[in-house]
Every structure is written in structure tokens, then in C-alpha cells.
Amino acid sequence: MADERNSGLGNHPIVVIAGLVASISSIFVFLTGKTSLPEVFSGKENGTQTSTNIVSPSTRPAPIDDAISSYTTGQKLDLNQLLADNIAAGTIRVDNIKGDEWVVVTGLRTAFDVNSAKIKPDFYNVMDKIASMVNEYGAVRLAIRGHTDSKENPTQSQDLSDRRAAAVEAYLWSKSVSRDRLSSAGYGMALPIASNETDDGRRYNRRVDIHIASAIGPR
Question: Taking the domain 62-214, which CATH number applies?
Fold first, then answer.
């Protein structure tokens, strides 16, 4: 069970997580099976187990903190909340497929240049937030899909889309996202989301989609 309350530590809230552990010397409370918060604790022995409260100062950026708090209290994962600033800036589009399944799509400002797999600067902040979320939850998986427009080099379309997806995957991995939570694949020009007859349409199609899904679903 988790709740947030004022800690007296300035403006930083704390997160209190109640649970059972085998011994005080090995206090680790795992959120969704991965993330540990072995910080300040108070508790008492209870037979072979220890009943304990783990108190963790919350130092995450507010959007990440709010999204994680929603998830750990049983609400649905909310990517609109996590990425609100990026959506408002027109950097990305975020769609809720169903429940805790989301897709984050690059926009005009973050679309790849023609025949390039170089990530645009505005997309790094998006990936940083997603990486922080995955590292906090543990039980989130990312499927990255690369795409091209119809006028990019047709003989290299599949390879180019693979490289676009791989570039995003490599960056997330560099931010400590576990490899077993990442996958990437290219789809060439097969799945356009806009007309290839206009410049803007082709820019939209030179994209990556990051499909985000909870591995356990809402509690």
C-alpha cells in the first residue's frame, strides 16, 4: 500500500509504502517486481518477517511523480499526464489504445529528416521521461516501431525504418531501461499515418511509434 504525505522536507512529499520483508537488514520493497526503495524505514519484528514502512523522499520531476503515484495507487497509467508539456508543444502525439496501452508518435518537430535515422533534439526529453517511468515501474514494456515515407530510397526503406527504431531503442537502453523491456522493428513505408502526397504528410510518416504497455495491468 502506498500513500503520499507532507514530510516537513521543504516542498518535497514523501512516499510511504507498507509491506513485509524477511529481515530489517535486507529491506527492499519492490514496486511491480523491479523498483526498490530501500531508504528510511520504521518497523517491528513479526515472527520470521518484519512489518515495515518504507519512507522515500519524492525527488522525481512532478509529471513523472504524478504518473507513478497514479499507477501505484491503482489508477490507470496516464501518458497524457506524463507527457503533457510535450503534447502541448506539438512535439508528439499520444494515443490511449486501451487501458494501460499507449502509443507515443513523433510529430512534425521530431520527424526524421529524409533518409536519416538521427533523432531530433526535441524528442530526447520525451524519451527521458519514458525511461524514468519505466525504471520506476519496472513492469512496463516498450515496443518501438520505425517507419519511412513513400519517397525515401525504396531499396533502403526497410533498413532505414529498422535503424530509426534501433536508434530510439539504443537511447532508452543508454538510460538504463532493461533490454528485456525493449523491442524494436522497422515497417518500411507499409504503415503511413498521413498522405505521402504532401510535405507535411511525408514528415509525419518519417517517424517512430513507441508502444507502451503495462506488464501487469492496473491493480
Answer: 3.30.1330.60
